[in-house]
Write a structure and sequence with these properties.
Elements: E1 15-19, E2 23-24, E3 30-31, E4 34-41, E5 51-55, E6 82-83, E7 88-89, E8 94-98, E9 113-114, E10 119-120, H1 130-143, E11 151-155, H2 157-168, E12 175-179, H3 187-201, H4 219-233, H5 236-242, H6 262-275, H7 280-292, H8 303-306, E13 313-319, H9 327-339, E14 344-349, H10 363-374
Parallel strand pairs: 5-8, 5-11, 6-7, 11-12, 12-13, 13-14
Antiparallel strand pairs: 1-4, 2-3, 4-8, 9-10
Helix pairs in contact: 1-2, 3-4, 3-7, 4-6
């Protein structure tokens, strides 16, 4: 009997695809060769019509569901929604989840070796956009024999990629699910990203992005960046419920350097853990890709005009306490899709967990997600 739950995809093994054709990037540079790491769950049907692409958020990666080891306790980051009988049902769908180009979990990125120099790219890795990611994902789809995705699904930055897929490749996507996302970042969001970047850039161990050559990492900067980011992913209510003003001990130390409140301990733990698994240059790249995303920018700010070429049916979902990507931003996208004459459904979910709600098994969210996915034809 398997030790894994019945609704788990079980053991999964990451796969690697190498590309030797140049990928022209929006910044004007090109990557002459690169690799993408990805995982698949379920089986591709005979006519290749049941493929679903999962696009990850800022700190995400290819490991979205299942386990890499038999004794592994923590499954992939979206295991709550991917698996047999779940919202993205692997009994029906062939699911592809990849680590984006520029990432630090196997795909070619700043920590990879530049074949031209024999050293890590570091700060010399080119700046990427959401469009660049979508173009690289289309190349992966070609290699997998997928001419058209049944759906492209993503939350947060992943939702931006799903929307860009519908814009860039209207004939290669039938359904677009954009969850807890926005058609562009607000000034406040860009400001949060800039504070995070400055924390990294001003770390003495950053060395202008070439820290690998010095055998160090900008750990303090990464910790601060994660702490700032993590605060924005949670709602005030969820933080209050989880931590309140609880002290770690019964005594106040009256010391600026000590960790007295439980929330302080939590944030420091999150920052420490993140600094040990994520690359600083990748963090800079990902936040810039977030900042640059603005489909309406090429249409004089008219979002509806930027969506006119979309053929996919769209599903947009938001969460009431998400102040990083508020429901108002999702409604802005929905209104523009309606104005462009597109098929769109919208659900605003009552949830106390803030932006991170899209990752969690909130009953109404999962039920609606599953209901939408179940009506997608795959025959």
């Amino acid at each position: 009997m398997s030790r894994f739950p019945a609704d788990s995809v079980g053991l999964v093994t990451p796969q690697r695809q190498a590309f030797s054709e140049p990928l022209q990037l929006a910044c004007g540079k090109a990557l002459n060769q690169f690799e993408l790491v990805y995982e698949t769950y379920g089986e591709l049907n005979a006519n290749h019509s049941n493929a679903v692409l999962i696009c990850h958020a800022l700190s995400g990666h290819h490991h979205a569901a299942g386990f890499h080891k038999v004794d592994e306790r923590k499954p992939g980051w979206w295991d709550a929604c991917i698996g047999p009988g779940k919202a993205i049902d692997t009994n029906r769908f062939f699911v592809v989840s990849l680590n984006n180009l520029g990432g630090c979990h196997g795909s070619t990125g700043p920590s990879s070796i530049d074949p031209a120099t024999g050293k890590s790219y570091g700060a010399h890795f080119p700046v990427l956009t959401v469009e660049d990611w979508v173009h690289s994902q289309a190349l992966l789809a070609d290699r997998l024999g997928i001419a058209c995705w049944a759906a492209v699904v993503g939350g947060s930055l992943g939702g931006m990629q799903a929307l860009q897929w519908a814009i860039s490749y209207p004939d290669r996507i039938r359904h677009c699910l954009a969850i807890a996302t926005a058609p562009k970042l607000s000034a406040q969001n860009i400001a949060f990203n800039e504070v995070a970047r400055q924390a990294i850039i001003n770390d003495p161990d950053f060395h202008n992005g070439d820290y690998a050559a010095f055998g160090v990492i900008p750990k303090r900067g990464l910790m601060l960046a994660r702490m700032v980011g993590h605060i924005t992913y949670l709602s005030d209510d969820s933080m209050g419920e989880k931590f309140g003003r609880e002290l770690r001990t019964d005594v106040l130390n009256y010391d600026f350097t000590s960790v007295e409140f439980q929330v302080e301990s939590y944030l420091r733990y999150q920052g420490q853990e993140f600094s040990e698994r994520f690359d600083a240059n990748t963090y800079l790249l990902m936040t810039k890709a977030l900042d640059y995303f603005d489909p309406a920018g090429a249409h004089s700010g008219n979002l509806a005009s930027s969506l006119e070429g979309i053929k996919a049916r769209c599903m947009v979902m938001s969460f009431t306490t998400d102040w990083r990507f508020s429901p108002a931003r999702s409604r802005e996208l929905v209104d523009a899709l309606f104005a462009a004459g597109k098929q769109v459904s919208y659900l605003e979910i009552e949830a106390a967990q803030g932006h991170d709600a899209f990752l969690l098994p909130i009953p109404r969210y999962v039920q609606a997600f599953k209901a939408y996915m179940n009506q997608i034809e795959v025959a």
